[in-house]
Amino acid sequence: MALVLAGFSLVTLFEHHLERRFSSELATYTNQLVGRIDADQQGRIHVHGNLADPRFAEPLSGLYWQIQDDTHRTLLRSRSLWDNKLDLPKDELSLGDVHHHTLAGPDGQPLMVSERQVILEPDTLGRRVRVAVARNRSDLDAAREAFARDMLPYFALLAIFLMAASWVQVRTGLAPLEQLRRGVLSIRRGRLQRLQGPYPDEVTPLVDEINELLEMRDRMVENARSWTADLAHGLKTPLSALAADAQRLRSAGQEEVADDLDDLAQVMRRRVDRELIRARLRSSDTAVTRQTDLTKAIQRILKTLTRTPEGQAKNWHAEMPDRAAVAMREDDLIELLGNLLDNAGKWARQHVWITVVPGSCIRISIEDDGPGVPQENLQKLGERGLRLDEQIRGHGLGLAIVRDIVAAYEGTVEFTRSQHGGLAVHICFAPAAERS
To answer: Which residues face 34 on adjacent strands?
Structure first.
């Protein structure tokens, strides 16, 4: 917009300059013409000699002169007018005044006209005549358009230069914000704890506020963890006492009451475990990228499960790459896989299949050949807010924890029937390199 305005202003200034120059030339021609006018004894007007510019003698050349008396009767005119005449306005002229007009000339030419009134031989005749000189205004318009065309390449180069300079200026001015963005990204990915490095004075207050916000977040996380530890410690003692009471009742022969107390303690312990895991997920920073090797985690869990009597009786089939890094904390990944593999091993008749497929989404599939879950109940597995006694038997609290962990890491989980007859669980996570 500035360049357009500047270009329009320059063209306008150039046009005004040309108008002043044309007016100056017309005034010069008028003075020359006045100096050549004479009147004889009979009162006839004569022009001695020709004006210097040959266009006055060339028909319709665009440069004309005309002399007329006070009655607007044309007395003399230049050869360039040929059979035409200038229709000067009937305005009042004072001696010495110069009037400028824009009139239509021969063939519709727009003319710039300069006229003045003179007195011929004031001592004798005192005759007043009007002397007018005209020039085709199209010459001015053509010069203005040529000037505008000549300026276009330079204005284009100037526009390119100004845009490049503006781009450099914006990039330089916003460089501290880009540095700030990279610092925040490094904090999210766990490479930094606080924003560091020199920043301009204009950005320093924002950096200080962000660091203070991070400090406050860390305090909140630490408080949440302390509260979780206190809750776990406070609940373990009553649950242990309840289990001890159940054992004493069983020793006293009250096995039915003891079994009820054991079941109640087990339900409470599992509920506490789940809530502790959820509290840990809420208080931990799952947005920070951690690279955990999924393959090693599965191998570690399988090594533990195959040492148990129930795990030794099953055939574990694992198909996975040598390394598959996921953006999860190691303890959360172990908790997730442990629940899934423990659940599959408990319900499988003979075989459990584990498949890991890397890609834009790392897909984990765990299937068993157990009895499976009815189709109408698949969507209820691990449902948030569902009471424990409403869970499908054998696929309850562990799968609820699975849903919590998957949701915390923005993954997806799907429960389907396996082609081997049992339950199939499909989980998808972003690779560690892609999650930010």
So the answer is: none
pLDDT at 250 over 60: yes
- Is pTM beyond 0.70 here? no
Cα–Cα nearest to 412, from 426, 424, 431, 399: 426
Radius of gyration of the chain (CA): 50
Q: How far is CA 18 from CA 11, 12, 102, 114, 138, in A?
A: 10, 10, 15, 15, 12
Residues in the chain: 436
Range with the lowest mean pLDDT among 69-83, 167-181, 199-213, 334-348? 69-83
Q: Are 265 and 236 in contact (CB under 8 A)?
A: no
H or E element, residue 63: strand 63-69
Dihedral angle, C-alpha 118, 119, 121, 124, nearest 10 °: 170
Q: Residue 328's pLDDT is what?
A: 83
394, pLDDT greater than 80: no
Per-position DSSP letters for 8-61, written without gaps between them: HHHHHHHHHHHHHHHHHHHHHHHHHHHHHEEE-TT--EEE-S--S-GGGGSTT-
Count of Cβ atoms closer than 10 Å to residue 419 Cβ: 10
The token pair at 135 is: 């020039």
Measure the CA–CA gap between 338 and 330, rounded to whole angstroms.
Answer: 12
